[in-house]
Write the structure tokens for this entry.
Amino acid sequence: MPDFMILIRENETEQQRMAPSETKALVERHAAYVQRLNAAGAYRDSERLRPSAEGKRVHASKVEAGPFGDEHAIAGYYLVKADNLDAAVALAEPCPMAPGDTLDVRPLMGGDVRANKTSRQGKTFAFAVLGNASSEEAWEEVMDRIEADTSDLSRDERFLGGVRLEPPRRGLQIVSRGHKRTVMDGPFLESKEVIGGLFFMRMADLDEAVRWARGTKFLKHGELEIRELWRS
Amino acid sequence: MAQLSHTLDEVFRRDRGRVVAQLVRFLGSIDAAEEAFQEAVLSALATWPERGVPDSPGAWLMTAAKNHALDARRHRRVADAKAPVFLWAENPMSNPETFESVGDDQLRLIFTCCHPALPPESQVALTLKLIAGFSTEEIARAFVSPETTIAQRIVRAKRTIDDKQLPYEVPGRAELPERVASVLSVVYLVFNEGHTSRAGALMRLDLQREALRLARLLCDLLPDEPQVFALLALIAFGCARAATRTDSRGELVLLSEQDRKRWDRSLIKDGLVALERARRIGPRASFVLQAEIAACHAIARAWDETDWAAILDAYDALYALDPSPVVALNRAVALCMHEGPAAALAALAELEEPLSRYHHFYATRADFRRRLGLDATDDYQRALALAENDGERRFLERKLAER
């Protein structure tokens, strides 16, 4: 059965306005959702990312401090098993959403992650590979090059796995407006920076993560957004 | 230059705990580790302003400190053939610094600082000094004690560690829960000192933030301990309210009167996420229950909308674990809100004897009596006589005047 990533993108400004009682309800609904996915035998993994204000974006020539000024900050993800995209969207439908949230349901192109990343000592960081490719063919080419360039990563003992994603057009988006959810096509490639993949590394702190990122080959193909995993 | 020295201070404080912890393992002595770190700081101050702060200041400081220590050791060798040997590493320079080894070093040192053979006030002072990187002067200011008292406390604690040969290690599974409890209570004491102490407002906020940082560090080091996450939650909820606990004149503001719009929602979210994890991975132990109570307050839109039934339920469970009169007193406050002052006053009947030196007991009883329309003068006056700090005294005086 193929794997799909349900990426939760949030409007952090909107989240800041949420009453604490709603935040509590949201946290509890996520816990219940994990159980629900588990019961359906569809659950693979999930993580929550610390706020983007605590993150960094590493470009080939500079390092940018968060927040990154977009309304679709990566808030977390669920990795699920489903027969096809429609089934994955059906699994994503009951995923808890806060006002302003978007869910990207994206098929995996390859890779795997290790579960329970935060049950080990130390800090774990998510590295989101942000790329832009002009066409789906170009996307696949970039992804292949990234895989080739970074195949030695799996031998690094700090590496906790990672996934490459199919181009966004092969996925779908769920947008919530009030109480109604709408399923839409994934964004066009050229629309903006698109998440090409996510991988995870254990690092002493954000400084070490940034130093490491600056020396990687990912920067040839795009940017790296570094965010600490929330231990949840 | 002032800007740079500020940056350096921050770097030194941030990396101090991590570097000193590794040095203790290499050198086998806390004093030698602190000395070597101090030497490394002097080298940094001599070279960084000119050459710039290195990419990895912590690693730079570690190397410089190790070189100083090796030099010092060579000198001692010449002077004294029976110079102390390195206890924990045959060849300190060859030890790879993996994340685990650094994390474990810090954890070992935390367990040593919070060893039950040391008096609690020494545990707190040592933790602030060695783990948090406070100076003796800062600790003295935080505890409103003379610097010499704190310095002596630290010297005596280090001597006890040497004399009793307190182990520098992470305790084994059998001992772990008890020893973790001791570490948690030290962090909680740091937080509580920030919550209630007589120290200046800035120092209090500093202590609370430090407690938060220590709790986060413990979560990184002991990710499977539910009580650690519960403590983080409890402290995060407390820190979220910190700015509203005093008014512009520095007077105490009760929870019921605080401006909830100004509570820090990011910290509340931190607390809620940590509490959810604590409840998922472990039993409803003491810090979990205390964090649940704090969460009820943190999420209530107003004092009147607080879920008193949930709070009372948590206090019942807490009392079952720890049947202390202080827990019973706090439970009575929740009972007052849930069932009214008559039931709450009745619940206080047996608490006067054990709490006769505790101003909160009389202040609470005075409040219940006032609500019932009974005379509360005596109780307010007793509370006033027992109050520990000026803020509380002024608060009680206002209450006395209000009647």
User: Anything to note?
Assistant: Residues 132 and 193 of chain A are 6 Å apart (CA to CA). The longest strand of chain A covers residues 102-113.
